[in-house]
Design goal:
The chain is of the alpha/beta class. The chain has 9 helices and 7 strands. The strands form 2 sheets. Strands 4-3-5-6-7 form a 5-stranded mixed beta sheet. The chain has a two-stranded antiparallel ribbon with strand order 1-2. α2 crosses α3. The longest helix has 17 residues. It is elongated, with a radius of gyration of 23 Å. The relative contact order is 0.09. Bound molecules: zinc ion (ZN). Zinc ion binds next to α5.
């Protein structure tokens, strides 16, 4: 038994003694990207080094710049380089409407419809009890504070139509109606299980226009 597979243990010990190469480190770093496994990471690393050194440098600089400067807007929680983002500062928006979305990508999708003129709150997640993500983890108290500033009259819940998105909308809906706000949910133009990011602009615009009021 102790002699089983001596080659592989020899290889392992040789491997451990070799210092990590820049190539390995790059591949390992690329695995931070969602859905990128070891093989894909290695392919990307090879590609950048072999075919696109300038691209690799641009990527490195852009990553460093973004990681240093991008923060969360104090009002809507989306990504911005400012304390309060330009959308929150705009006087062309209706401050009595607050649309609650899961991600900055969802905010961008709704902006593309040009069917919504209010402000936003970005949860940066959703409730997911099975993954240990509860109201504290997504800091719902910040949303409550934002929505009860006295100016917001209606909260439009635009979380995804997945089980978790629906549960999140339900939970937030209860919290905000209890605080006297009108709460509405996107209409069912968005398919069951649908993520806003993948819904076409026309459908999303219709879902916004035909949103239904909750709890009334
Ligand atoms: Zn903002």
């Amino acid at each position: 038994m102790s002699l089983a597979n001596p080659r592989s243990s020899a290889l392992r010990s040789v491997g451990a003694a070799v210092p990590r190469s820049g190539m390995d480190e790059l591949a390992q770093a690329l695995r931070s990207l969602p859905g990128v496994g070891p093989k894909a990471a290695q392919r990307m690393a090879l590609y950048l080094l072999q075919h696109d050194r300038d691209g690799a440098v641009r990527l490195a600089e852009a990553l460093l710049h973004a990681a240093k400067t991008v923060r969360h807007c104090e009002q809507c929680n989306t990504f911005t380089e400012e304390v309060v983002c330009s959308l929150c500062r705009s006087d062309k928006r209706d401050p009595s409407l607050l649309c609650v979305v899961e991600t900055p990508a969802d905010l961008m999708m709704i902006e593309q419809t040009q069917a919504y003129s209010g402000l936003y709150y970005v949860l940066m997640g959703r409730l997911s009890p099975l993954d240990g993500i509860g109201p504290k983890e997504i800091r719902l108290e910040r949303l409550i504070k934002r929505a009860t500033d006295g100016v917001v009259k209606e909260a439009v819940l635009a979380t995804n139509f997945t089980n978790e998105g629906e549960a999140t909308a339900h939970y937030i809906g209860e919290l905000l109606t209890a605080r006297g706000l009108k709460v509405s949910r996107l209409a069912r133009g968005v398919p069951v299980g649908g993520e806003l990011e993948y819904v076409d602009s026309g459908t999303l615009a219709q879902a916004l226009r035909e949103r239904r009021t909750l709890g009334s």
